[in-house]
Design goal:
Two copies of one chain form a homodimer.
Chain A: E1 5-11, H1 15-26, E2 31-34, H2 60-73, E3 77-79, E4 84-89, E5 95-99, E6 103-111, E7 115-117, H3 125-130, E8 135-136, H4 139-142, E9 150-154, H5 158-167, E10 173-177, H6 187-198, E11 204-207, E12 210-216, E13 223-228, E14 234-238, E15 241-244, E16 248-250, E17 281-283, H7 295-314
Parallel strand pairs in A: 1-2, 1-6, 2-3, 6-17, 8-15, 9-10, 9-15, 10-11
Antiparallel strand pairs in A: 4-5, 5-6, 7-16, 12-13, 13-14
Helix pairs in contact in A: 1-2, 1-7, 5-6
Amino acid sequence: MTQDVYDVIIIGGGPAGLGAALYASRDRYKTLILEKYFPGGQIMTTDRIENYPGFESIDGASLIMKMQNQVETFGTEIKTSAEVTGLKKLDSGLIQVVCDEDAYVTRAVILSPGSSYRKLGAPGEEEFRSAGAGVSYCGTCDAPFFRDKEVVSIGGGNTAVEETLHLAKYASKVTMLHRREEFRAARVLVEELEAKAQAPDSNLVIRYNSVCTAIEGDGKCQSAKVKNVKTGTVEDVPCDGVFIFVGTVPNTDFLKDSVELTEAGFIKCDTARLRTSMPGVFVAGDCRTGADMQLITAVADGVSAAMALKEYYRDPNWWTAKEVEDMQPSGF
Amino acid sequence: MTQDVYDVIIIGGGPAGLGAALYASRDRYKTLILEKYFPGGQIMTTDRIENYPGFESIDGASLIMKMQNQVETFGTEIKTSAEVTGLKKLDSGLIQVVCDEDAYVTRAVILSPGSSYRKLGAPGEEEFRSAGAGVSYCGTCDAPFFRDKEVVSIGGGNTAVEETLHLAKYASKVTMLHRREEFRAARVLVEELEAKAQAPDSNLVIRYNSVCTAIEGDGKCQSAKVKNVKTGTVEDVPCDGVFIFVGTVPNTDFLKDSVELTEAGFIKCDTARLRTSMPGVFVAGDCRTGADMQLITAVADGVSAAMALKEYYRDPNWWTAKEVEDMQPSGF
């Protein structure tokens, strides 16, 4: 067991964790990142990012490399292949972070394990995703790359509908697949979607009771195999891209016994200061309630958590201070 | 008067405004930035930024130029030298943004007028600030540039004490000036500061009843003229930098009649969704309550406001939804 006491251990080395590490280590705090695989997380597989202000266009791996170098310059230690299995508050007030084969002791923790897009599990999904050749899980991020192209979108919830409407602003044609007869998205969204689909010369087609069973193409996505689950008929829908909006899964299984989670597994927090239910444990990024799920907001979340850390170091009682009320307009 | 209706008008073209504009215009909303002077705001005068994740080192003007090009690519319109004098809710539900010589109508507004560091008003302050030659208003940002150098810090509040302690981690010597006999900062902070100053071989000296009357040097800061307000004696304190922590002034005078402000002039908001007291008017960046006052957090704030905008477009009643409660752990 390692006996060094860290000022802060950051769990997860994606954009939020790296943002937190930059600020914490630049503040000269002894900072350790524990990363299950390798730094970067979900963004590593993104070929082109156009919505991180400051970079007109950059790939995920290059951006992460820059951030990683930056935090290491300021002294952040990064342990890869380090899977955290739990957190334990010690009698001393310090926190023990337990890994598979090791355990670390720290004054504070920033949780930034991120989330994963729920996969469809269809053949071709992995192949065309990793090559950046047509499979995407984020319309806000990638819609502009499909200007005047044909795409298929998949899903039935709020995000699926919102993102499909967004795609329809760019794509020449959007075919939306939903496996059931009715959407579970908010009524107002569904109405907007249906109105759009029924408009004259609409570029949006909705296919109910339909699932995608495969994504096919030669080097890049060229069509989606679409099966009607009622009739059993299968059809190839030509398309340049497939957008999969079937949910997000926060990587928070290991936290079930330590911090309060929502039913869907997101870490509950006060959005103003990113405190969780466990004093000394902050949260940043996609894994928390209320996250905007964007690259830049994840990075900034990490920075905000690292800023809030200092309040806690100074006065542990700050943890339960209800400082937010004064910030709000009356009526909120 | 211009008759076009914008989807969103962003007031202030600094980092927060540019972050908001990137997302809003990339979402194909008709977006206008009204900027009093020129895009960039406070960060334009910063010579070296090391804490914007992704850039190891960049100057403020270059970073802003990149962001500005980025938002213009997606269709954001920017009007410079456009000073907003007020906001007015129209009977139609739209919002009128009134400028000196013009007025614009929009569905929603994002306020990002920023804030200014309160100036000392001492000779040399402007000269050595604009040349990046020793005058700074942010220890978190600039302390690492003064590693093993001598600095003077000025102020008496929480930020002044925190930032001075931070400076002492880097500088070989810090002389802190406070114009009164006692600090107004939190007791716990003052104790930490005093303990640090009284430690053997401390690199921190506190001078009470002392003000800085001039910053002097040849091309760069070399000394501060320090006057004891009780005895009247004046002394030159050699230093490579002067850090001025005498407060921040949000640029919100023009909003007095439209949105709720704190006594200090910050715009009240719900920190989760950045809504102000006026439906349809969001806020982002240093001018709001609870802001972390960092470059990256300002940019991300703009992005979050642009994301929240969509909820409002979809359903104006969302404005008063108390969605935050479910996000929080019990006891908050």
